UniProtKB/TrEMBL annotation:
Residue ranges annotated for the FAD-dependent urate hydroxylase HpyO/Asp monooxygenase CreE-like FAD/NAD(P)-binding domain, each copy included: 5-154
Pfam families: NAD_binding_9 (PF13454)
Highest taxon of the lineage: Bacteria
Protein name: FAD/NAD(P)-binding protein
InterPro entries: FAD/NAD-bd_sf, HpyO/CreE_NAD-binding, L-asp_N-monooxygenase_NS-form
Length: 564
């Protein structure tokens, strides 16, 4: 009997097993799944986390199953979305515990769908090292692997020099410092007083929840406005970032017009065989694609807001480069209200050029900004934003086939498309009005001096003095700084290598590439820590999800190597 060892038991591993099951292989195969966390959900989506933490996707937008949009070689095996499986409101944002149960059910469903010639054993242990064909676990077990797959998910990293210095400063002066890590894993028990949070994305939202409602505070609605009633156990949170504003709210409506065919302009085929510069070649075409999704919805869903038929606009739009005076002239001619034009630069840096005489003046400005964002993302009149969102998703899927993800682009995508549910921003506003959250501004700086943490921004002249600093973001992983023992063991003997960004080098099929540039015939890796692109392990229905196609290719390759 052949053996396949998969290190990591989260949704990526479950999806890979589903694609193996879909091939109906005939070989005798023993599959070993190694993960200290429950299979299916894995570490990030484990049930053992605060019930207050929620997904930032609506229930109807989450599936682990292929559907009719799937164009991989393997067969389509449809199944319920999270909304259908859990019988929950399709437009709700469920808790991560609900998603955990869905993923655990999916893993069990996949196990049951495997033919009798394939067995699956789950080892609730941590893999410590790989030596030759053997995988050693912290349980004392060792597993022989004819083929090995590293499906490690998001990984921890050793602290960067800056973080080590900040931690040393905190220890020396009796302060609190929380380095980049997953919010659900953070020890926040010592966080009190005035605390700076560096980062304004989803990690901040989680930390905000855990340090306020998680400490006994509650929200009440009075005269239509949400108010926060403190428990008295909350710290005061000073938040800032490069942009100085939170991620945009998720939209709360559906398309009002016809669904665009995406991608329209930005395809891997259109850029094939060219030497590409991201800013000069790739981004202008990406911007045009996102604008196409936006204007497709504006014209087909809101004809009263435009001056010409969509066919006429689309013909002119198609012929013009995105960054051209002619394109700006077309927008001005076709769309009377400048507020209905899409402006990527303003979206990226909404505080550019703005300064305020006092921190208080800035608090009022940013509350108005967040209120306007929540209102816009809740009003179907602005459903063109959803058209842009769908185009963003298609661009993200194509980008993986074109070139490695640019760091700015990945952050920009997350900022526009991967923000919190709108009610989380309402809670942020309530916390701001209650004085629990204070906004610092754009291009926030932090210094460890005078027995404290100082923070400020060019946005206001005020400087914050705090006794705590929390890095409100995920760790930046690289192979040279990895905290994962398996990758470290492979790196120690040169069996794994990294690219310039610190990502583990793999071939298009997912095989590991060693330090000599040689391809490993039986070891594979998949996930965000590899050069094999970072695709979400689950996806929106009917989007021909890249992760499902990647799993399909990998499953086929694994079975070929195993000798089916």
């Amino acid at each position: 009997m052949r053996s396949l060892v998969v290190i990591g038991g989260g949704p990526r591993a479950a999806g890979l097993l589903e694609r193996i099951a879909a091939q109906s292989p005939s070989l005798e195969l023993a599959v070993h799944v190694v993960d200290p966390y429950p299979p299916g959900a894995g570490r990030v989506w484990r049930h053992a986390q605060s019930p207050l933490l929620r997904m930032n996707s609506m229930a109807e937008d989450v599936t682990v199953f292929t559907d009719s949009s799937f164009d991989g070689l393997g067969p389509v095996r449809p199944g319920p979305s999270l909304a259908e499986w859990g019988d929950v409101d399709p437009t709700s944002f469920p808790s991560r515990q609900v998603q955990s149960k869905y993923l655990a059910w999916f893993f069990d469903h996949v196990k049951e769908s495997l033919p009798p010639n394939i067995t699956v054993s789950v080892h609730e242990a941590r893999a410590l090292k790989v030596v030759g064909d053997w995988v050693w676990l912290d349980s004392g077990e060792s597993l022989r692997a004819d083929v090995l797959v590293l499906a490690l998910g998001h990984l921890d990293a050793e602290p960067e020099p800056e973080h080590r210095k900040l931690a040393e400063h905190a220890v020396e002066h009796g302060l609190v410092y929380v380095p980049p890590l997953y919010s659900a894993d953070a020890d926040l028990s010592e966080v009190a007083g005035d605390v700076v949070l560096r980062g304004f994305g989803l990690a901040f939202i989680d930390l905000m929840v855990l340090l306020t409602e998680g400490r006994g505070g509650r929200y009440v609605r009075s005269d239509g406005e949400l108010r926060y009633v403190p428990s008295g156990l909350e710290p005061r949170l000073f938040v800032g970032s490069r942009r100085g504003v939170p991620y945009h709210s998720k939209t709360g409506y559906r398309l009002q017009g016809t669904r665009p065919s995406l991608p329209h302009f930005f395809t891997a085929e259109a850029l094939k065989g060219r030497s590409l510069d991201f800013r000069g070649d790739v981004w202008p075409l990406m911007a045009k694609e996102i604008a196409w999704g936006y204007y497709h919805e504006l014209f087909t869903g809101h004809p009263g807001l435009v001056r010409m038929p969509f066919v006429e606009f689309a013909t002119a739009f198609t012929a013009l480069p995105w960054y051209s005076r002619e394109m700006r002239a077309l927008e001005a001619l076709a769309i009377p209200d400048p507020a209905d034009h899409i402006d990527f630069e303003l979206l990226d840096r909404p505080l550019t050029g703005l300064t305020f005489a006092s921190a208080e003046e800035f608090q009022e400005h940013l509350r108005a900004y967040v209120e306007a964002d929540v209102a816009r993302r809740s009003d179907p009149r602005h459903s063109a934003d959803l058209g842009a969102f769908l185009a963003l998703l298609s661009v993200y899927g194509q980008m993986a086939q074109v070139m490695p993800h640019d760091g700015w682009w990945h952050g920009y995508f997350s900022y526009l498309a991967s923000g919190p549910p709108p009610d989380r921003l309402e809670e942020l506003l309530a916390l701001s009005r209650a004085g629990i959250v204070r906004f610092v501004g754009a291009d926030m700086w932090v210094e460890a001096v005078d027995g404290a943490f100082l923070a400020g921004s060019p946005t206001t002249p005020d400087v914050v003095r705090a006794n705590g600093l929390i890095e409100a973001r995920l760790p930046s992983h690289s192979l040279s700084r990895t905290a994962d023992p398996v990758l470290r063991s492979l790196r120690a003997v040169g069996d794994v290598s990294e690219d310039d960004a610190g990502l583990v080098r793999v071939t298009p099929e997912g095989r590991l590439v060693d330090e000599r540039g040689e391809v490993d015939p039986v070891r594979f890796a998949v996930g965000p820590y590899t050069t094999g692109k970072a695709f979400a392990a689950f996806a929106r229905p009917n989007t021909n999800a890249p992760a499902f196609r990647q799993n399909d290719v990998l499953a086929r390759e694994l079975l070929k190597v195993l000798g089916d």
